[in-house]
Each structure stands twice: as structure tokens, then as C-alpha cells.
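Archive entry. Fields below.
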Amino acid sequence: MREVRIESLVKKYGKDLAPAVDSVDLQVAAGEFLVLLGPSGCGKTTLLRCLAGLERPTSGTISFGEETVFDAAEGTSLPPERRQIGMVFQNYSLWPHMSVAKNVGYPLRARRVPRADQASRVDKALRTVQCEALAKRLPAQLSGGQQQRIALARALVADPQVMLLDEPLSNLDALLRVDLRDQLRDLHRELGFTSIYVTHDQSEAFTLGTRVAVMRAGRIEQLGTPEEVYTNPASEYVASFLGIRNSFSLHREGGQWRGSLGVLDGALLDSLDRSQEYRCFTRPEHIRLRTADAPATDSDTLVLPAGRVVDAVFAGSAVEYVVAIDGETVHATSTSSHGRFAIGQTVQCSIDAEHCILYSDQVRVPVPA
Amino acid sequence: MSTEVARDVVAADAQPRRRTSRQYRSGRERERSRRSALWWLTVLAAVGFLVWFPIVQLERDAFSGGLSAFERMADLPRIGETLRSTVLLALLSSAFAVVLGTYLAWCAATLPRRLRRLGQIVPLLPLVVPAVAAVTGWIFLLSPSVGYLNAALRKTPFFDHLTEGPLNVYSLPAMILITGLLLTSFVFLYVQTGLRSIGEEYEAAAAVSGAGPMRRFFTITLPLLRPSIVHAAGIVFLLGMGQFTVPLLLGRNQGVDVLTTEMYRLTLTYPIDYPLGAALGSPLLIAGLLLIILQRVIIGDQRRFVVVSARSRNDVRKPRRGSAVVILTYFVLSTVLPLLALIYVAFSRYWSGDLDFSGMTTANFEEVLFHRPQLTDAIWNSVSTATVAVLIVIPLGFACAYAALQTTSIHPRTRRLIDITVGLPVAIPAALFGFAMLFAYTRAPFQLYGTTAILVVTYVTLMLPHGTRLQLSSLIATGQEFREASRASGAGPIRTFLFVLLPMSRKGIAAAAAIMFVLLFHEFTASLMVRSSQTQVMGSILYDIYTGGLYPQVAVMALIMVVVTMAGVGAAMAIGGSDALEKM
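PREDICTED_STRUCTURE:
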């Protein structure tokens, strides 16, 4: 296992085009599972392919452990076959003309592992992904989930220094995806390979990653543990990418805090800088609903103007309410123990300070407790 | 060229016919299904007649006297040598084409990125030059005494002691090489398409598995290309077996004959010994059939080649500057040199072997265009017969293509028969087909010899596979959903056809027409078989002035063919997009 160090890496496809990867600095510790998360076109796959050597970066350096595999200034660029990596592709890329065993054995043959060891290592890799029985089949005879497992076995078989995974689960259906995701997590815990994993799915990112790097337009917007990124998105971009559905602006006007939802109230507002304009994000499950006549509690540190329930969707363990406030909509999820609200009913929404994710000028503002 | 491709598409589309339970069918529905069955049977009858009538007539005649035709064939002087030359020419030229074509396709894939689009087209340009024009160009270059290239070589110290040569265009090795060069573009076309559909992702997977470029090429790329290569090899081998232009122009001088030239010789005698011609053509027929079977065997388990293409950018196929050099060299050798020779001779007073630009003249062009009514007639005939043939093939091919896409309104057997029939003219060499046409249409009830009608019928039959395949691919590209949406909106088949299908495939139809024009202006083999001295086309009249020794006029005629073809290709590309060339 080796650490991966990326320094001011840039990849441009054309002089006049915006760079696909824009001066990225990143250190991945040995044995870490780093997830590159972002929407399509954010440069995460390009970055991964630069690590693999499948794309040649425009400038910067990449090193695996002590070895520099790419250095634009010195002109060093190890071809992919000499980087000692394992890679899993989005479409699996199992060679259709080779049996499963041949596919998995290929990295061993290519690296001239003694013939005597090959068979046992192929067996071991196939056992690791629980596909011993498939050795003689052709890829076309496998299901999507089986193909993905074989692809994983092929990437693991030669004990790579670094594992690169390019949206490996995105072509699978939902149940299988969760299943394979958990297996991948177990495998990583057991074998401890350094991995870099690309995905656009935040639940995948949060369950798999020891750290998550959220990317935007070729740059890393936020890098942190899953908990950090989830509770404390560094920018409005990250907050909206994570799908935090409610957001509204607030500013001081005529002695009141006003915003896109109307006049706001609550203890939280006293601690804000009156000359600033803010934007607040909050998750539906953090909006508390009460009837208009019920009294406010101490924890209601930000109170929104009264609104009307326009829709209530039963979603199993919770009810999802859509509340109209001053022409805007607010989403609130409440676990059914709170009692139910009827469509048309007037309700009051409030938020705890700790769940208000505030930004000013795109920058995260800590909320005083 | 590839009905096989079309056939695969059709096969993929061939779902089992949905059966409506009979008792639930209303009378009107029954009437409608009977009408559509009748309609498809009419289509089948039309194409069946066009394709099968001449072949069946000829073969029946061949066996009418028992095996006597084959005995006469065995008694022909030098028949062993003819067979040997036929097989040698086919084997060696197709082997040459397969190796060079595959190598060129690989070079095109490893060009520096900005040259790649160009690299996909340049190796196809030889297809623009009619074979008869290219061969004439080679004669001007490599004729032993007055070939320009030979004359130039004799000026170098290595060969200055020679009075002739060192190269001889009128020899079997030269025939093999020139045929090979002509066939290379076809191989390139198939392998390149194969390479593109495989994509680079499989090679990327091999690279990250630790395989270097050589290992990647031999363990991943080449095995995955096997279907394309086998397919291309089969087709160029057939084209080599049926090759006529090269041996006719180059072989007869030195008495190197092949089966097709023997058949042509028969058409010059009177009365024509048709059974003997059919016997001579039988090895070609058998080769075609064997090859189709052999291809299936060699490709084997199709699932091994189901590729998932990924469109991501890669730097796995390392761009090499050398690739551009290879492609350029091929282009110069196969196309530029013979064209330059043609142009030079066309503007010279006579063909002497010495380069002398002071005596350049446009007299040859004036002669051909204004003073030889025979030649202008031939040009006019080429244009008019091709136009009429294309006008007939377009609707016929459209019907056949449409039949291939039907799942409910056509009986599967009718569909399969149409498919096989339409594909047949590709598997049968044009020389044999032309010979059969001559036989079938010079006697009652169709006495067409000496009229342009025989040319039109021949052209329609030869173009049937192309007209069908080209329109089928454009129909597939427009997508089944549009037709289904129209039917689901309550439109009947005729309304769907007129207001959805036809407008949507307008572009495809026009491109198909342009490509068929190009192929027909190229047509030399079958034309030469069925022409008479009064009904000539560009290719056949060119051969006549060639045998008459009027070389500058031959060059002019060849250039006119090139120009007309280029105009056709230009039209096809303007209408059908820049990949129109690849559809030939």
C-alpha cells in the first residue's frame, strides 16, 4: 500500500477551454479510501484517469509512495502498465473473448508472475469476490453484478499499490448496488488497499469513504470526513449538491430580518452581523412544524413566517410536508409521532440553530450555539 | 459491400411474429393482413425474378448437356494454368490487402489526434478512383519500355544498363500487387469500423493491468478484431477470385488468364458457348458459398465479440507521427501516382515514357468531348442508364429494407427469402453475373441485346444489395419508435409511410442514390459483358480505345470517370455527411 500525492495537477483539453482538472492538490494516505464526489463534468473521472496514466495531465506532479509517476516539469510520465495499479471501470471492460479465469489472470501474465503461482492467485481473487464457480464462463454469460465482481477480482489479483475505481456501481440496479457497496467496504477493511473512488452518488460516498473530496469545475471544493462534509458543507455549492432542499436568503431591512420567505424571527438573528446578507440551508428533517397557536419553545432559534400545508406525502416512517410560505415552498419531514397536519392547515416552521447552515458571500458562517 | 452487416442487423431485429388468435380477428383485419401478405409476396417476386432468373437460366443451360460443358472446360488449352493464376491472384492479393488494410487501420487509430478525422478518410480515397482508371494509370507508370516510373528508375545507377524494366506491369506479381492495393481500402473500411466499435476502453483495462503496447495489441485488440478481419478477408478473397479489370488489362498481354477473362473471351465468339461459360464460373460460385460457411465457422461463438463501447477519451493508443507517414505513403502509391500519370498522358500528344512538359496540349480533351460522337454517346449512356437504374432501385430497395424491419405484417419466411435474395448479387462475382445476364436477356422472351435496357436491368440487379443495405441503415438510424408512435397515434401503414417514414429518411435515400451513382460509374466488369458495339458506357468504351492503342484518349476517358465519380462522392458527402464514403 502506498500513499498518493498529487500536486498542482492541471489537465486542459484545449487552449481556450476551461481546464477539466484545475490545480488540484491532494494527499491520500496509505490504506485510505478516498472518494471523489461531484456531478458529471466536474473533472473527477479525468482526475482518476490522470492517476491511472490513461490521460496525460498538462502540468503538475503525481507520486505513488516514493515514486514519481508523473512530473510535467521533468517530462516523466510512467505509462499505465508500469504504475502498479488496479482499476475498475464503469462499464467493467471485461474482455469478451476471454473466459473469467483468463480475464482475472491477465494482470498476472502481463506482469510475468511465475506460471505456477498464477492459478492459485486467480482462485484466491475469485474466492474473495465469491465467484469461484464462474471461472470458465465468458463475460457475456454473466449478470451485471457478476461482471462487476469479476472486474474487481481482476483489479485486485496482482496486489496493486493503488486501486482506482471509476463509478463501478453506477450501472447496477439499486438493491445490487447497496449489496456490492457493502462488500466493497468489507474488502477494503480486510485488505487495506489505498483506493480512490469516483462517484456522483452521495450515499455511496458517505458509506465508503474514509474521506470525501467534493469536486466542482476541476477543483476540490471541500475535503473532509463524511461526517464533516455532511454536517458542515463548506459552500453553497456543496450544500446544494448534497441535496439540502430548503434554502432562503436573509438580510436586514427596516429594523427587521427579511428574506425570500418574508419576515423572520428568533434568537439566532441577534448574533448575526446586521450589515451582511446571508443564505441559510436546512434539511427537511430539521424543520419543525407546529400549529399556528402552539407556543414557541426555547430551541426554536429561527422562526419562519406562518405558512400553509399544501401537500402531505406519506413516506413510510415519516410524512413529508410541503409548506407554502409567501409563495415559496419549504419541505419538512416529520416522523409521525408528532401528530399529523392537514392539507390547508396553517403551520409555523422553526429551525434549531445547530441545523441552520449559514453562508455569507458563499463562505460558511459558524452559527453561535 | 456488406449485406452480412445488414443481415446481422435484421437478425437482431427478427423477433418471433406475434400471433393474433384467429377467432378474435375481425373480417376487416383479415382482409388487411391478406393484402399486406400479397404486397410482400409481390416484392419478393420482383427481386426474386431479377436475381434468380439469370442465374437459374444459366445454370440450367450449363447442365443441359450433362457434364459435357465441364469436359470441354477440362479440354481448354492451359486451363490448369488459368485456375492456378485465378487462385494465386485471389489468395496473394487478398492476403496482401488484409495485412496492409489492418495495418493502415491501426495507423489511422494511432494518428496524432488532430489528424484522426482525415486519417479515417484518406485510405478510402482509392475507392473514388474507378479500378479501370487506376489500372490504366499503373500501365502508364510501369509498362516495361515506356512506363514513366521504369524510365525514371533506368536513370539511376542501379538500372542504367537496362533497356526495359526493371518493373513489368504485365506480370502476375504486378497484377497481385495492384489488385492488392485496390482491395486494401475494403479491408481498411471493415477493420477501422471494427476498431472504432471496440473503442479504447478494453485496451485501457489491459494497460492498467500491466500490459505494454505490444501485448495489448496481440492479446486484446487483434483477437477482438477477428470478426472484422475474417469478414474483410472473405470479401476481398471473393473480389480477388472474381477480379476482372486487372487481369483483363494486364494479363492478356502476356497470356496470363483467369476464369473471368476466359469467360469474357467466350462472349467475343459466335455463337457464345454459354454452358462452357457457366462451367468456368462455377468455381467462383462454389468459392462464394464455401466462404460464407467458412466465415461462420472461423468466427465461432459470437458472444466472444459482443463489445461494450465506451466513448471516453483516452491516451492509450499512443499517437505516433509514423502513422501519418504510412498513410500518406499508401495514398501516394495507390492514388496520387496513377492519377498523376493519367493527367500527364491526357495532356500529352502521345505516350512515350519521357517527361517533357513543352508539348502539353488539350487536343485530346477536344477530340474526346467534341469529335468522337461514340465517346460522348458512351458518357451519355453511363449517365442515363445509371439514372434510370437508380430510380428503379431506390423504391425497390426501400421496400426490401422496410420488409427487413417488419415484425408483424410479414411472414418470417417471406422476409428471410427477400433478405437472402437481395444479398446474393454481392456473393456472386460481377463477371459471372454479367455473363448470366447476357445469356438470360438475349433470347426470348427478353431480347434486350443491343439495347440500353440490358444495361439498366444489369445495373438494377447489381445495385439491389447496396440500395437495400444503405436505406436499411438509414431506416434503422431513424428508429423504430417513430413508426410505432405513428401507429399508436392511430395512423395506418400508408399514412405512417407517407408522413413519417419518407420525410425522415429523405436524407438517407438521397445519400444512397448518390453512392449508387458512384458505384455504377465505376462498373466495368458486367458492363463489358453485356454491352454491344452500339451500346457502350464509359468503362467499356475506355477498354475499346485502350485495345485500339489511343492512349492519350484512354487517359482522358479515365480522368472523366474520376471527375464524374468525385462529383458523385461530393454529392453523397454533402447529403449524407462525411462518413458517406464508408458506406461504399
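CURATOR_NOTE: Residues 27-62 of chain B form the longest helix (36 residues).
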